[in-house]
Design brief:
Largest sheet: 4 strands, mixed
Biased composition (Polar residues): 156-168
Number of strands: 10
CATH superfamily of the largest domain: Holliday junction resolvase RusA
Helix content: 10-25%
Structural class: alpha+beta
Oligomer: single chain
Number of helices: 7
Strand order of the largest sheet: 5-10-8-9
Shape: elongated
Number of domains: 2
Order of helices and strands: HEEHEEEEEHEHHEEHH
CATH topology of the largest domain: 60s Ribosomal Protein L30, Chain: A
CATH architecture of the largest domain: 2-Layer Sandwich
CATH class of the largest domain: Alpha Beta
Region (Disordered): 33-60, 154-174
Radius of gyration: 33 Å
Length: 268
């Protein structure tokens, strides 16, 4: 049989290249098959574990065996305060060939040491650091540095009552940068060669913070009467409250914060 007869019989057809006659059950001739890239292996579909009511994702709590010192803390929350001027932790910089220093130097070391000691006083010695998801709340009370004429900070706010004789409340919207204050405090509670409150910085999944001037010019309820910091650390399944920063009257210091203030701040 010639080619036309095979096509008429329905057993063969012309390849897409137009040069070869192939069986109808083949996709291409041998020459075309050699020129085509091999087919990609099939990607298996991702199987999702489901139940009759939908995906199997439910509420959870922190494994009690991972709480460490938080298991014995009141309400599973560790709170402590430190008196002193908050010191920011800046970037590393080269001061000479092969010599790297961090901004703030000895002041930063002393500030971080003060935070670490206050933490140890709050949780005691010999405890086990936590190994679970955590939230950290911090409020830094920085020195009141607004000049008499208001300066840059004073130009940021105006009184809501134009006829009032009182000055408008101001926030520390200048240096030190809040992120650098956080960096110093974070490294103080998880130092490399000393006891750590929790296993690793990566355990922190929420970090809320604020900076404020001392009372009565403060913009946060956790503000101190003198420079310092208040830190609150809790497992993620604990509903620890962190108030908002405001240019209105923040109100009195909460009792749970007032109870942990050091003597230096109580007397101030």
């Amino acid at each position: 049989m010639n080619g036309q007869e095979l096509v008429d019989a329905g057993t063969h057809r012309l390849c897409g290249c137009g040069r070869m006659l192939i069986r109808v059950d083949r996709s291409s001739c041998r020459d075309c098959a050699l020129r085509q890239p091999p087919p990609a292996p099939p990607v298996p579909a991702r199987r999702r574990r489901t139940s009759a009511t939908g995906p199997r994702v439910g509420d959870a709590k922190v494994d009690p065996s991972k709480l460490g010192v938080f298991a014995d803390a009141p309400g599973s929350v560790v709170r402590f305060a430190v008196a002193g001027k908050p010191v920011p932790q800046g970037s590393l910089r080269a001061v000479a060939a092969g010599v790297i220093k961090r901004e703030s130097g000895p002041e930063l070391v002393a500030w971080r040491t003060a935070i670490h000691r206050a933490m140890l006083s709050a949780v005691g010695l010999g405890g086990i650091g936590a190994d679970c998801p955590l939230r950290v709340h911090a409020v830094f009370t920085v020195p009141m540095t607004v000049p008499k004429n208001g300066g840059v900070v004073g130009s940021h706010t105006v009184s809501t009552a134009p006829d009032s004789s009182s000055s408008p409340r101001v926030a520390p919207s200048t240096a030190p940068d809040l992120d650098k204050l956080i960096r110093a405090a974070g490294d103080a509670i998880t130092p490399r060669k000393r006891w750590r409150l929790f296993a690793d910085d990566s355990r922190i999944v929420e970090w809320s913070s604020a900076k404020t001037y001392p009372r009565p010019e403060h913009v946060h309820p956790w503000a101190l009467s003198a420079p310092g910091v208040v830190l609150q650390v809790s497992p993620l399944d604990v509903a620890a409250v962190f108030p908002s920063t405001t240019l209105s009257d923040p109100g009195p210091c909460p009792a749970e914060i007032a109870d942990i203030l050091p003597a230096a701040l109580r007397a101030a």
